[in-house]
Structures are given as structure tokens and as C-alpha cells.
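thread: overnight batch results

M.L. [08:02]
morning all. the overnight job finished for the chain we discussed friday. pasting input first so we're all looking at the same thing
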Amino acid sequence: MEKQPDYIAEFENYLRLDKNYSINTVMAYSSDVKELFIYLKSVSDIRKKDYRHNNGDCDNNNKKNTDNITINRDDDYYNNNEIDIKEIAEIDIRGYLSKEYDKVKKVSLARKIESIKAFFNFLEKRHIIDKNPVFLLELPKIEKKLPFFLTVNEARFLLDNYRSLSFEKKGVKYEFEILRNDLILEFLYGSGLRVSEIIFVKYKDLALNEGYVKVLGKGSKERIIPLTIQTVNKIQKWKNYIGAHIANLNFKSEFLIINKKGNHLTRRTVHRIVHESMLITGQFKNISPHSLRHSFATHLLDNGADLRSIQDMLGHSNLSTTEKYTHLSLKKLLDVYKQSHPHAVK
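M.L. [08:03]
and the structure it wrote out:
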């Protein structure tokens, strides 16, 4: 077969440059499509050469053989030139998805389908393929779970006591980490930032006198987020600490949230910090950074903020994404009714 262009590389450029997707999203979409090609390469050697001319199906023996295919997910194994992209049919893609169905959660399967659909829609848009094999593919229905969050009292206790309890348990030699982690928690709950936004906040993005920070969110969209008085105070304490110890730390960083080498933190590190914060403050809840962001939005809504304002602060492109918080408030309303009304079932 004549060597064909690397369409997945072109797809990555399209997502990054034309769609303005984040690097994490681009890599996730690309990885999903590569796994499809790895599967197609695996089954191509045992498929009957003429099965496409046999009503597009395989004989029973071939079906049995493909049932035990193991997908090698190593990127080095991927080669988009070994499969003729114009010959991929719907039955091939459905065969891959059927293998994945029992291995991954529905939400992961939905993302894989979304990635594959985006890839073939891209090929069709660029007139690389004449017939789109994913035209009839639909996303699986996913049960929407209400996001987990802290109560107002739990959030207040965490932010008011994390620093003092950390010094008590760890000691002053961990002051760098304690002040930084306390600021991370305040950012997550006080301003509802995503982890990916917090770790890339730079000093030039801060407007402390005006009480806001500029962040670069999903799709490289810039937005302005208000800062609480507590957040501003904790930023000042962190800056003062860095300024006083800059000689010992031996670095100069443009990022606000950093490790002792002056580099911005990883997402995994922030997740670990949040998990440890719950243990330090004795709340023993399985809280993630996103849980604190959910708490931020829920408490705003409970105290009268409108959905449009919350949407802007969270950086949601669609209001429907923000509307999930109305379910939380509805649950609270029903709980209050059941506890307070004399005719309510208790």
C-alpha cells in the first residue's frame, strides 16, 4: 500500500490550532484514536482477505479468533500507515468498541467514541474519506452523578485550621509546603479554580489590590476570577515567605504555586495535597480538588448567586454544565421541607 500521510498527527494539529483544545484534551483524543488503529492492525492479519466482498462479515472461525485479541497499547506499536484509512468500515469500529465495552467504564467508552467520531469527522471535512464510518455511532447513556462536596462548616473548618494543624503535626521545617498547600486549598474553594489553572497562575496574573486573578482555562480562554480577602491574605503571606527565603531556595520563578526547585506542581501532587489535608484536619472524607470546586459553586448557588455568574466564574462553555448544581440545591430544598413541614413524611 502506498504510504499515506500521518492523519493522526494532522488531527492533533487540527484540535490544537483550529479547535483550540488544551494539550491534555488533544493527547486524550489522539490516544483513543491510536488504540483503534492498534486494534485494527491486530485483527487485520487474521481477517479473511475477501470478507468485505462477502457482505461485510467474517465467518464463525474468524469471529472466534478475534474474541481473544489483546490490544498492545504501547505508542511504539502504533503505525497509521499499516491500515488503509479509506477502507475502515463501521463494522471494524464496532468490533473495537465491543472489545472495550466490558473493560472500561461507560464514561471512558463515551470519551473513546467521541474521540473516534471527531477523528473521522475531521477526515470527512478534509475530504480524505468519502464515507464516514461513524455517522451512525451514538454515545452510551451515562448516569449523571451529583458531584461530591463539603458542607459550609466543613469547608470553613478546613480553611481555618489546615495551617495550624499542619504546623502542629509536621513542624516549622515544613513551612514552605504548609503555606503553599494552604493557598492551594483556598484557591480551590475560594475561587473555584481547576487544578490545571492553579498550577499555571503566574505573578503577573494577580491583581491583589483589585481582588482578582486572570486564568487561562479550557480552550485557552482567559477569564477573570474574584479573590476572597482570605485568598489575598494567604497570597501575601506566601509571597513574603518566598521573598524572605529566596536566597536559600536558590530560584526565581514566574509561577505562584511551585515546588522547592521553582517548578510548577503536577496535577497528581495537588490531588495528593487535598487528600492529605482532609486527614490532617480529621475530616476523613474522600475529597478531590474538583470536590472543592463543586463546593465553591454549590455554596454560591445556595446563597443566591445566579447560574450565569457561576458559569462565568467556573469557565463552563455551556450553561447546561453549570445546571447540575441546581440538582444539589433542589435536594437541599427537599431535605429542608422534610425536616420542617408537619405533613412531610419523616
